[in-house]
Amino acid sequence: MSTFQNQIEQNVMRTKMLIIGGGPAGYTAAIYAARANMKPIQALGIQPGGQLMITTDVENYPGYSQVIQGPFLMSEMRAQAEHVGTRTIEDTIVDVDFSSRPFHAITEDGFTIIADTVVISTGAKARWLGLESETKFRGFGVSACATCDGFFFRGKKVAVVGGGNSAVEEAIYLTNHAEHVTLIHRRDALRAEKIAQDRLLANPKISVIWNADVMEVCGSENPLSVTHLMLKDTVTGGTSKLDVDGVFIAIGHDPASTLFKDKVDLDSEGYITTKPNSTETSVSGVFAAGDVQDKVFRQAVTAAGQGCMAALEAERFLSH
């Protein structure tokens, strides 16, 4: 690439490991790599800390007996990574060359990073409805993760928006906590697998509203909390009100993998594919950890575990 050739003689940084992304996977990879004396460089990107930076209460991350805030957890991870020797840079990788080792990456600020190994931990973003009211109540009754936040709705009424496997699975999961779950789908048939649909429709704690869009999330101001949804019938155009204490948006996620298209193998949904029981990608020496390759669990603790795996695999790769 001419871009790399132009940049390589100036503003160059070298490292045994470049970590792209700053969420739980990236910070954990950095911690393990630094402790192995790999002197990693971590490019944090446009949102250091990832999705947890917009997460309020975190109650399911091991090691904290009390509820903590997502930004606090991320700041602690970053401080730990830096303490053991990681060089963090608040810069975004805009191009990569994985065609040969050592690998090259260019940052938005014009630096070239030459790395013997790379860990991709750029994460994924939940798809939202795009409502102003949805944004207002995000973290105060609006969530995109039932596993993360379902516990806070014990004995309450909640809604799930979506019609695919994720929406059905989240609705079923929420019955473990909520008094009642209403699934809202804009069509008259679900896209989820038949066996999952059967389980959903047979559950007495779940009801379905067909052919409906969420027009607005409504709630109280003090304290900020969701009280009901305004729905629009996609067939008749009529409106209705649904009383709920919370709403979970389950219309999919978008992995932050655009930069790596045609550089490593991606699946049909854009997630980076890795070898079985490994974080190694289709390019030897390039690893992927966290939500950019995990579309099943999408938890901070599983992302951290994969970050650990990636660093250990990279260390072994270099030693061999």
Q: What are the main properties of this structure?
A:
320 residues, alpha/beta, five-stranded parallel sheet, 8 helices, 25% helix, elongated
What's the gist of this structure?
This protein is α/β, with parallel strands linked by helices and about 325 residues long. About 25% of the residues lie in helices and about 30% in strands.
Give a written overview of the molecule.
The chain is of the alpha/beta class. The protein is 25% helix and 29% strand. It has eight helices and 19 strands. The strands form five sheets. Strands 1, 2, 5, 6, 7, 8 and 19 form a seven-stranded mixed sheet that branches. A five-stranded parallel sheet has the order 10-17-11-12-13. The longest helix is centred in the C-terminal third of the chain and has 20 residues, at 300-319. It is elongated.
Overall strand count: 19
Number of helices: 8
Mean pLDDT: 94
Strand content: 25-35%
Q: Which overall shape is indicated by the principal axes computed on the Cα atoms?
A: elongated
CA-CA gap between termini: 28 Å
Fraction of residues in helix = 25-40%
- Major β-sheet, in short? 7 strands, mixed
Going by helix content, strand content and strand pairing, the class is alpha/beta
Give the helices and strands as they follow along the chain. Answer: HEHEEEHEEEEEHEHEHEHEEEEEEEH
Radius of gyration: 22 Å
Which parts are unreliable, with pLDDT below 50 for 5 consecutive residues or more?
Answer: none
